[in-house]
Automatic annotation (TrEMBL):
<dbReference type="GO" id="GO:1990281">
    <property type="term" value="C:efflux pump complex"/>
</dbReference>
<keyword id="KW-0472">Membrane</keyword>
<feature type="coiled-coil region">
    <location>
        <begin position="104"/>
        <end position="227"/>
    </location>
</feature>
<keyword id="KW-0812">Transmembrane</keyword>
<keyword id="KW-0175">Coiled coil</keyword>
<protein>
    <submittedName>
        <fullName>Multidrug efflux pump subunit AcrA (Membrane-fusion protein)</fullName>
    </submittedName>
</protein>
<feature type="transmembrane region" description="Helical">
    <location>
        <begin position="20"/>
        <end position="41"/>
    </location>
</feature>
<keyword id="KW-1133">Transmembrane helix</keyword>
<dbReference type="GO" id="GO:0015562">
    <property type="term" value="F:efflux transmembrane transporter activity"/>
</dbReference>
Length: 424
């Protein structure tokens, strides 16, 4: 056996050992990196943003329907049949244009009856005045004249008997009899005067009542004449007809308007329901943009004229926007837009960065550390005091210095001090 044959098994064994060593170290390296990758897959994945200073602006939007500032609702004053309708919903009318005609036949008959009743009331009034002036006064004046004449003679007899009685020439009985006759006739005259006064008062009351009946009847007639005049219903101003609530041949009644019309000359407005919290940033006189959705998103300017509470809902307020002159007809759908500066802060963070629990508001701040295999990332909880906010950012009054990086998104829940990986 030569030397080469002896060395060959030794070399083969060394080669096998070397190959095994390569495999072993390869597996170790693979497992090291694989375990790190596997561990990384279990960590929360976060997205971050560097904080900054700046101003906040609240963007407020809301929807509403544009209407004329003055809406006219016409109610008929009588129940009568609709004879004719001259317009349709959506028609533009001028002041004085005929909108609807109501049948006036029944009203004309009622007017005739009331005129006859008025004539009867006037005749009754004349009779009462004539009775007072021609009969009552003259009758009592005649009776009082007769009593006054009787008093004159009775007084003379009484005075004569009194003188004779005082001289002892006449009996006391006859004297007292004459005195009684005199006093009786005087009482009759006083009673008659009182009776006349009562009769005159009663007569005056009857006359005044008759006069009031005439006045009331004249007012009734005037109302009927006005109703007849109003049977031809005309537009009180230029406008657009929005509703016609009766049809030809129907009975018109006063529980719903016969027509509804928008006064074009009054201008237009839009009412928007907004959250009460948003309304804290709105003031009367603020200029806003209104986007007209059914006119190709045309934008017109507006001004906030009123902010009022919504009935039975304290969470909502009604904001009234007065619109500038534009080609509007009412009924258009509009969208309000207002951007309002609400404050400047040394530190502002995205709204998504601010969290809240039982301890208050906080953010997660990103921190870097050197690990065995490179840079590792951790998050630290920082309590903050928030101020104003807009649609995207929140102003912080305290809690951060201004050079931190905050977490704005995480695919898993976070804890103070936990390790994370950055989203690429």
């Amino acid at each position: 056996m030569n030397t080469s044959e002896i060395k060959k098994p030794i070399l083969d064994r060394k080669k096998r050992i070397l190959d095994l060593a390569k495999v072993f170290f390869g597996v170790i390296i693979f497992l090291t990196f694989f375990s790190k990758s596997f561990y990384s897959w279990t960590l929360p994945k976060v997205r971050t943003e560097t904080i900054s200073s700046g101003s906040l602006a609240k963007e407020i939007t809301g929807n509403g329907i544009i209407t004329a500032k003055e809406r006219i609702e016409h109610y008929v004053s009588v129940r009568a049949q609709v004879k004719d309708i001259r317009v349709s919903v959506g028609d533009e009318v001028k002041k004085g244009d005929v909108i609807m005609v109501i049948d006036k036949g029944d009203l004309e008959k009622e007017l005739e009856r009331n005129n006859i009743e008025l004539l009867e009331l006037k005749l009754q009034y004349d009779r009462l005045v004539s009775h007072r002036d021609s009969y009552l006064v003259k009758d009592y004046e005649k009776r009082m004249k007769e009593l006054e004449d009787d008093i004159y003679y009775k007084e003379k007899d009484y005075l004569l008997y009194k003188e004779l009685y005082e001289k002892g020439l006449e009996s006391r009985y006859n004297y007292e009899l004459k005195e009684k006759d005199y006093n009786d006739v005087k009482s009759k005259l006083e009673n008659l005067k009182e009776e006349l006064e009562r009769e005159m008062e009663n007569s005056s009351r009857d006359i005044e009542a008759a006069k009031l009946d005439i006045i009331k009847k004249e007012l009734d007639i005037r109302d009927i004449e006005e109703d007849i005049k109003n049977c031809i219903i005309v537009a009180p101003s230029d406008g657009i007809v929005k509703e016609i609530n009766f049809k030809k041949g129907m009975m018109a009644y006063d529980s719903v308007p016969a027509y509804v019309m928008d006064n074009m000359k009054s201008g237009f407005e839009m009412k928007v329901d907004l959250n009460s919290e948003l309304c804290k940033y709105i003031s009367l006189g603020d200029q806003v943009e209104i986007r007209i959705k059914n006119q190709g998103n045309k934008i017109i300017d507006g001004e906030i004229k009123a902010i009022s509470d919504k009935q039975n809902d304290y969470r909502i307020k009604i904001v009234t926007v007065e619109l500038e002159d534009a080609d509007l007809s009412g009924g258009e759908a509009g969208e309000l837009y207002l951007r309002k500066k609400v404050g400047s802060y040394d530190v502002i963070v995205p709204r998504s960065a601010v969290k809240k629990d039982s301890q208050g508001e906080f953010v997660y701040v990103l921190e870097e550390k050197e690990g065995p295999l490179g840079v590792e990332y951790y998050v630290l909880r920082k309590s903050v005091t928030i101020g104003d906010s807009d649609n995207n950012y929140v102003g912080l009054r305290s809690g951060l210095l201004g050079n931190e990086t905050v977490v704005v998104y995480s695919n898993k829940s976070l804890d103070d001090g936990c390790q994370v990986i950055l989203e690429k």
